[in-house]
Amino acid sequence: MSATRVRTTALGVGAVLAAFVLLLWLAPDDPDREGTVAVVGRAAPAIDATDTEGRPVRLADYRGQWLLVNFFATWCVPCRAEHPELVAFREAHRDAGDASVLSVAYDEEPAVIAEFFRTNGGDWPTIAEGADRYVLEYGVVKLPESFLIDPDGTVVHKFAGGVRAAEVDAVIERAARGRT
Amino acid sequence: MWAALALSVVVLVALGARRAPASGTSAARLDGIAAELRCLQCTGESVAGSQAPIAVKMRDEILRQARAGATDDEIYSYFVDRYGPRVLLNPPSTGVAGLIWVLPVVVVCTAAAGVATVLARWRAAGRAEAGADGAATPGVRPGRAGDGPRPAWRTPAMGGAVVLFAVLAGVLVANSSGQRQSGDTITGGGPDADDPAAECRAQAMARPEAAIGCYDDVLAATPDDPESLTYRGWARYRTGDTAGAAADFARVVEVDPTFPDVYVFRAVQAKDEGRFLDARASLDRLDELDAPAQLVDTMRSMGLELQVAEGLLAPDTRACWTREKAAIAAVNAALAASVQAGAGAGPTTTLPPGSVTDALTELVEADKCLAAVLVARPDDVDALVMRGLAISVLYQVSLAAEPDAAVLGRALEVLGRAVELAPDDPDPRLIRAAVANMSGDPRAAAADLDVIGDRSPSPLYASIDVDTIRRDVEAQLREG
């Protein structure tokens, strides 16, 4: 085969491969790769449960206010570390009544949860029974994770690894600005 | 004919790779589905092969859905909807990741075509030597015996056709999503062959007692493994064995003082036991090491640095700070609510009447509290900085009602004293820069920011965004 023909062949093959790679590169990629969260931007998965005190808890009851759904466990150190921030967030919004917290306990006994709240503060409802379902519904992987739900019931943000009250407020502010 | 045969092979391979439709709740079916799903709490393990809590929950859900009559695809879709495509062990067949499926097929097909071409040429050459005469026409090369002349464009065209065919075959295989067995590594080995602690890690979160036993087994074979010692220590700590935990952590520092994870847990233990200086020392050591970003992020998300910084404050200063922090959080919440109500954000945000009354009262009380601390210890830099911050927030909150420049002057005076006492400390300079900028003196603010450079403020003031202040100051300077 002459040098010219070899070059022509190589160019032809190279061009087809390059076009193909370019095609794949430009093709829409997976919408939910690692780092993005499937549930964010969608209607929050419904919650209809009973809290550790035996009171009914429904997500629909929180319509019209911001809700931070917090997945935690008392045995998880980052969860314990973030708890004061949840308390501060709740306290800061208590009077205005514009934001609440709802906890979902991960593999936890109600008595342990009650003791945890007694020791560390916080008076919002916590779901323990049937929590597995909500863990999967919200796509929880590692604790703690929290999901901020706007007053219309849409998940607007996921906090992984612990929240800070100021950070949640900042997200609310940004999201509220986007809504207006 | 060769092309038809090759296409048949590819189609058969693709069809063979498809999952057989199944129904019911047989163990084989449930295991098969679980084997296709990734355990997101593990490394390289499938839901079928892991005892991690999330894997157990996912298996329960697979069983529940199978009992309800869901098809395999419906079950996969359920998990993909919630966790995204990464929950599938097979790489996706679209996007750049699709190259994983396509390129090997392209390479194999191209190589096969190359070999076939070379063989054909050898055969033709042999025949030519045996007596066949080739026509030497310009632009046309000799063909095989019995063939007519072959045009010059034929070789590149054939090459292109082979690659196109290979690409199509690759896409076909990709779309039929071939089966890479769950838990296989890229080289085909099991995930845990070189990582005996993987199973312990999977158990560590929900079952620390089991994890301790698991790490005991690993450490029996490798007694100085820093990771196993560290995480057994942490499991021990969680089960209340603080002495055992401390012994494990100390051993890690002895055998591998550069293993970063241990310093996080040592800091947690020291903090919980009220030894804040020790906690700070562990965090400083972590800072010196090239700790993985994930570890640093986890530590930050725990708020550990903040808790240690607060623990290091004098008790009376800490009490004042607790009030001030809560009040500032309430002000931020009121600002957020105000923005939500459509008031818009910015320094001229008008807060709804009465929305921050409690916060205002708390800030005034925090200010009084800090004033009392400063009577006892006039040179307490922490108290001076906190007082400067409290006064400036009070100014911001009362801005809409009646701006009072004298208030900012008082804040600057307090912060100036703090800078005098600790000229190298970024905290007083950061707050003073913010206040100076607020009072319309961007030059003074810029001077403080220059001294701070790229140093980070104390975790106490981590919510104050240095970059935002810097941008604002630069904008004011540009405007003259």
Describe it.
The complex is a heterodimer of chains A (180) and B (480). In chain A, a hairpin with a 5-residue loop joins β6 and β7. Chain A is elongated, with a radius of gyration of 24 Å. The model of chain A is unreliable at 28-36 (pLDDT under 50). Chain A is an alpha/beta fold. Chain A contains 5 helices and 7 strands. The longest helix of chain A has 24 residues, at 3-26. The relative contact order of chain A is 0.17. Chain B is mostly helical and 480 residues long. Chain B is extended, with a radius of gyration of 35 Å. In chain B, α16 packs antiparallel against α17. In chain B, β1 and β2 form a beta hairpin. Chain B contains 21 helices and 2 strands. The longest helix of chain B has 31 residues, at 99-129. Residues 134-140, 142-146, 177-193 and 343-349 of chain B have low confidence and may be disordered. Chains A and B meet through α1, α2, α4 and α5 of A and α3, α4, α5, α6 and α13 of B.
Strand percentage of chain A lies at 15-25%
> How far apart are the first and last residues' alpha carbons of chain B, in Å?
80 Å
Strand order of the largest sheet of chain B: 1-2
Q: For the residues shown, what is the average pLDDT of chain A?
A: 84
Counting copies of identical and different chains, the oligomeric state is heterodimer
Q: Percent of residues of chain B in beta strands?
A: under 5%
Low-pLDDT windows of residues of chain B: 134-140, 142-146, 177-193, 343-349
How does the SSE layout of this entry go?
The complex is a heterodimer of chains A (180) and B (480).
Chain A: H1 3-26, E1 48-50, E2 56-58, E3 66-72, H2 77-94, E4 99-105, H3 110-120, E5 126-127, H4 131-137, E6 145-149, E7 155-160, H5 165-179
Parallel strand pairs in A: 3-4, 4-5
Antiparallel strand pairs in A: 1-2, 3-6, 6-7
Helix pairs in contact in A: 2-5
Chain B: H1 2-17, H2 27-35, H3 53-67, H4 72-83, H5 99-129, E1 140-141, E2 150-151, H6 154-175, H7 198-204, H8 208-221, H9 226-238, H10 242-255, H11 261-272, H12 276-288, H13 293-301, H14 304-311, H15 315-340, H16 357-376, H17 381-397, H18 405-421, H19 426-438, H20 442-452, H21 466-479
Antiparallel strand pairs in B: 1-2
Helix pairs in contact in B: 1-6, 5-6, 7-8, 8-9, 9-10, 9-11, 10-11, 11-12, 12-14, 15-16, 15-17, 16-17, 17-18, 17-19, 18-19, 19-20, 19-21, 20-21
